[in-house]
Write a structure and sequence with these properties.
Structural class: mainly alpha
Oligomer: single chain
Shape: globular
């Protein structure tokens, strides 16, 4: 799947990560598969950890080309599904949610990125983040805060560029919230912080065990 440009580059990254995993090495360590014999720091040169690792793991159990194409289709599906969840929640209507999921999850931008820049085509983390924030606003539970953490993780691992864009947006948006909705913004952020601390405290005994 793709136009023969950067998707070949992404395909090679998938292959490198797969070879590292097979040899029980860290997938994003130094490699000389490219730029032999000097090689390069794969961790510094690779983006979209989520897509690379998914394709790498699938390619261990199947043909590399099939694994790459299946990875693209999996994240296409995730784009649509996570978008559907948001739009169904906003509209309270299954059909409108489905239409919203199709329009956003399979937009022309997403289709174009899948053909040439796979590292930028997974945008499903953003609707999940909006959905999680809206859920927290109406029902502030640890589960909904956990969804926020999951969405932020998906955005970061999906594309460092999107993560930086989101961070820049927060730098502009959060001060505006404090200017116009000082008390509500303060309480919302404080509650999120408390829930995150609880999640961490609950997770520590599990991780240690």
């Amino acid at each position: 799947i793709g136009d023969g440009g950067d998707n070949y580059h992404q395909f090679v990254f998938q292959y490198i990560a797969a070879q590292k995993i097979i040899k029980l090495q860290f997938p994003f360590s130094h490699t000389d598969i490219l730029r032999y014999p000097v090689g390069f720091d794969f961790g510094a040169g690779a983006e979209s950890v989520l897509i690379i690792l998914t394709g790498a793991i699938l390619s261990i159990f199947s043909n590399s080309i099939f694994a790459y194409n299946l990875t693209i289709l999996i994240f296409f599906t995730l784009n649509g599904f996570l978008s559907f969840i948001l739009f169904r929640y906003i509209s309270k209507n299954y059909i409108l949610g489905l239409i919203g999921g199709l329009i956003y999850g399979y937009s022309s931008y997403v289709i174009a990125r899948s053909a040439g820049h796979p590292n930028l085509f997974f945008v499903g983390g953003f609707p999940l983040l909006i959905y999680s924030i809206l859920k927290c606003k109406n029902d502030f539970t640890i589960k909904n805060v956990f969804y926020i953490l999951v969405s932020l993780t998906l955005i970061y691992l999906g594309s460092y560029a999107y993560a930086m864009l989101l961070f820049s947006t927060f730098l502009v948006f959060v001060p505006i919230l404090f200017i116009f909705y000082k008390n509500d913004a303060y309480l919302f952020i404080l509650n999120i912080f408390r829930k995150i601390v609880k999640i961490i405290l609950v997770s520590i005994p599990i991780l240690v065990a």
